[in-house]
Design a protein that fits this description.
CATH topology of the largest domain: Mac-2 Binding Protein
Helix content: 10-25%
InterPro entries: SRCR, SRCR-like_dom_sf
GO cellular component, one term: membrane
Distance between the termini: 100 Å
CATH architecture of the largest domain: Roll
Protein name: SRCR domain-containing protein
CATH class of the largest domain: Alpha Beta
Pfam family, one: SRCR
Largest sheet: 7 strands, mixed
Keywords: Disulfide bond, Repeat, Signal
Radius of gyration: 38 Å
Length: about 400
């Protein structure tokens, strides 16, 4: 019988109700029944699933994998009542998967979650499969044939292991590249006779350090894996440089860390941190450039949440974090380092830049040893009067 919820509602008269057959009858009408159907509705119409053929004894319980990729992975199907159908995943686990894979001629295997399996068609034959682990055939495990609550979204999938790995191969690691950088790749592990990947959930720097050491590198960093090409010399660690396409004292800040140049994330970075960095670069002071005015860098983002007190000789001596997984190069720090420390009498001097009359033009100010302009936001006639008086004009 097919549950009424899976049967299209009929039309017309509902003839019979309360049918009860012994099993030997040649006609359904010969079974006891009632013709009192006034309380019935077409939503309760009976459906049946008739088997196409009676299975041969040696076919009952045969298994196969339906796949569009590797032969050893796919949707599991079972031959039951002479037809191929699927198995519902309720309580199906790796023990049951191992039995099924061994029946299919593999050494062992594991279950694939149904959301990663292409939905099947036709009959769902079994549910609540529960194997002890010693069975030779899956059909010999405990199971239920009540699958009325299942759908093909719940079909069981299997990943069967191709062979038993040699003891010395089990757990080997390798890095797979999709770029030209040899030491920054996807991490893969050899397990159960096959190469596969590792999920990044809870994978942290300590785990990466172990993996990199196994691969023969000296240090660790980042999900996937980032293994350092070389260990830095003491004098290189923490060196700074400015990358710029224009002025030498303005640009993206980069730091040498673990033997490689990389950028710094702008989270928490302020003018105090910028002043420390600029002094390290042999300027008198400096200020931060907002990240959207800085050309995006490439490679590793080394630091985040830099916080200097202002007295440090090197930026690397400031408190900082190396957790930069949430950062992108859009947030790279930029610096504007002051070329010279201004004389006290020059600080705040004004001038007018004009191509016409001397008393009209762009206002510039000398600040931090350099001439620059003033933004017009909220600048009004009162401010202009003060500036003009400073420039020596009194009638304003």
């Amino acid at each position: 019988m097919i549950p009424s919820t899976l049967v299209y509602d009929g039309q017309g008269t509902i003839w019979l109700n309360d049918i009860d057959c012994l099993g030997s009858e040649s006609k359904l009408l010969n079974c006891t029944h009632s013709i009192e159907t006034s309380h019935c509705h077409h939503s309760e119409d009976v459906g049946v699933h008739c088997f196409l053929s009676c299975p041969a004894e040696d076919d009952e319980g045969l298994l196969r994998l339906m796949t569009c990729s590797a032969d050893n992975k796919g949707r599991l199907k079972v031959n039951y009542k002479g037809e191929w159908g699927t198995i519902c995943h309720n309580f199906f686990d790796h023990v049951d998967a191992a039995i099924a894979c061994r029946q299919l001629g593999y050494c062992s295997g594991q279950m694939i979650h149904s959301k990663y399996v292409d939905g099947g068609q036709g009959t769902i034959w079994l549910d609540n499969v529960n194997c002890f682990g010693s069975e030779h055939n899956l059909i010999n495990c405990k199971h239920s044939i009540d699958t009325s609550h299942c759908s093909h979204l719940n079909d069981v999938g299997l990943h069967c292991y191709l062979n038993y790995p040699a003891e010395e191969d089990e757990g080997r690691l390798r890095l797979i590249s999709s770029s030209c950088i040899a030491n920054k790749e996807r991490l893969e592990i050899y397990y159960k006779g096959e190469w596969g990947t590792i999920c990044s959930s809870y994978f942290d720097h300590v785990d990466a350090e172990v993996a990199c050491r196994q691969l023969g590198y000296c240090h660790w960093y980042d999900v996937g894996l980032y293994c350092y090409l070389r260990c830095p010399s003491e004098e290189d660690e923490g060196l700074l440089r400015l990358i710029s396409s224009s002025d030498a004292n303005k640009g993206r800040l980069e730091i040498n860390y673990r033997g490689e140049w990389g950028t710094i994330c702008s989270t928490g970075f302020d003018d105090v941190d910028a002043a420390v960095a600029c002094r390290q670069l042999r300027y008198c002071s400096g200020q931060m450039i907002r990240h959207h005015f800085v050309e995006d860098g490439q490679g590793t983002i080394w630091f985040d949440n830099v916080n200097c007190s202002g007295s440090e000789n090197k930026l690397i001596n400031c408190t900082h974090s190396i957790d930069t997984l949430h950062c992108s190069h859009w947030f790279d720090v930029g610096l504007y380092c002051h070329l010279s420390c201004p004389l006290e009498e020059d600080e705040g001097r004004l001038r007018l830049i004009s191509s016409l009359t001397a008393n009209k033009g762009r206002l510039e100010i000398n600040y931090k040893g350099e001439w620059g302009t003033i933004c017009h936001n909220h600048f009004d006639h009162v401010d202009a009067a003060v500036a003009c008086r400073q420039l020596g004009y009194w009638c304003v």
